[in-house]
Specification:
The chain is of the alpha/beta class. The protein has 2 domains: 177 residues, 3-Layer(aba) Sandwich (Rossmann fold), CATH 3.40.50; 174 residues, Glycogen Phosphorylase B (Rossmann fold, 3-Layer(aba) Sandwich), CATH 3.40.50.2000. The protein contains 14 helices and 13 strands. It has a 7-stranded parallel sheet with strand order 3-2-1-4-5-6-7. Strands 10-9-8-11-12-13 form a 6-stranded parallel sheet, with helices on both faces. Helix 5 links the parallel strand 5 and strand 6.
Length: 361
């Protein structure tokens, strides 16, 4: 009988796409009859079955505590562990040593620091690639990990749209919609100043776009200062986090979704906004987001780089996308429907069940 742990190294109350993903995976697996728990140092932040572990920060503490955790929960009958993202992949050899079936779930893609300031050092990069050999299975939300770890080792599953997301009726009139919508944590990784620069430059060109920014985080004051500096206070509305149930109607308030991140995997927000019919502009550095928008079926927006902000052609493309946003609605929804809970989470569940059946034989 399979008993599954999902190892989550997150030690704060910061709630993002990764936490949403594993919470729903845990819920889904339990609903399908596989006993599953999230192993967390902050168990109260999840609304699914959890088990406690010591704070896994800094990295040396994560490493030293892993031996005791592996031994303890093996004694409790757990035999499969899902390691959540790159932050826990390097623990694969430890859990393998204690006889676990090890599954890696990668939300972001592995990069060297020389490729991205938020990437890994050369030593960390090599350690993570070596650790992958101790995984029985690897799943990735971002397709780029197939190039890094090998297509034969990594199954691209992507992100998913919750089943209930499609059923919420739209309540916003077209005249009340913002030209741009950005929903993100106010962190350096999300590079919100790049989006503010787009708005500022557009205004200088005579395009007085409006924008709704939803979120919060450590960069809030810097963002507010930049809005003041660029004279955008009358063009931007900032609202705090909302509940998951309110999100469909938040997406409905925009015409074009924006991802300006320095680094992403396959953003939950991009799929959700597509499910509500919004085309998107996304940075080239935002992982699979770019391929999803431009190269996965019909085009539903476009990809840009920071240097593009110097060119008039970029602002012409933005203007055209916003003017024609309604024509993208059905294409966006069709693309998002490929990534359902059943298609994405079901593939991970099937692998866990296949392992269980193999053990029985």
């Amino acid at each position: 009988m399979t008993k599954v742990l999902i190892y989550s190294p997150t030690h704060t109350n910061v709630w993002g796409g990764g936490q949403i993903y594993i919470e729903q995976l845990c819920r889904y697996m339990n609903e399908k009859g596989v006993e599953t728990y999230i192993l967390s140092s902050n168990p109260d932040s999840f609304n699914v079955p959890t088990l406690p572990m010591p704070i896994a920060h800094p990295k040396w503490r994560r490493f030293t505590s892993a031996f005791g955790l592996a031994k303890h929960y093996k004694g409790e009958g757990f035999n499969t562990i899902i390691l959540n993202d790159l932050a826990s992949l390097w623990l694969a050899p430890i859990f393998k040593l204690y006889g676990y079936r090890v599954i890696s779930l990668l939300l972001n893609y592995l990069q060297r620091r020389s490729e991205n300031p938020l990437g890994h050092s050369e030593v960390e990069y090599r350690l993570l690639k070596w650790s992958a050999y101790f995984c029985d299975n690897m799943f990735s939300v971002d397709k780029n990990n197939q190039k890094i770890f090998g297509k034969d080792r990594v199954v691209f599953v992507g992100n998913y749209v919750p089943d209930w997301f499609w059923d919420i009726p739209e309540k916003v009139n077209t005249k009340d919609k913002y030209d741009f919508l950005l929903l993100a944590r106010f962190a350096k990784q999300k590079n919100i100043p790049l989006f503010l620069e787009i708005l500022h430059n557009s205004h200088k060109l005579g395009k007085k776009y409006s924008a709704l920014i939803v979120g919060d985080g450590p960069e809030r004051e810097n963002i507010l200062d930049m809005i003041e500096k660029y004279g955008l206070k009358d063009s931007i509305t900032i609202e705090g986090w909302v509940s998951r149930e309110e999100l469909p109607n938040v997406y409905d308030r925009g015409k074009c979704f924006v991802i300006s991140s320095l680094h992403e995997g396959f953003a939950t927000t991009l799929l959700e906004s597509h499910a509500r019919g919004l085309p998107a502009i996304v940075t080239k550095s935002s992982g699979f987001c770019g391929e999803f928008v431009e190269g996965y079926g019909a085009s539903t927006g476009f990809v840009f780089e920071p240097d593009d902000l110097k060119r008039d052609s970029f602002y012409n493309k933005v203007s055209k996308l916003i003017a024609e946003y309604e024509s993208y609605g059905e294409k966006c929804r069709k693309k998002a429907k490929v990534f359902t809970e059943e298609n994405v989470l079901g593939e991970i569940l099937n692998t866990v069940n296949d392992i269980d059946r193999a053990d029985v034989r």
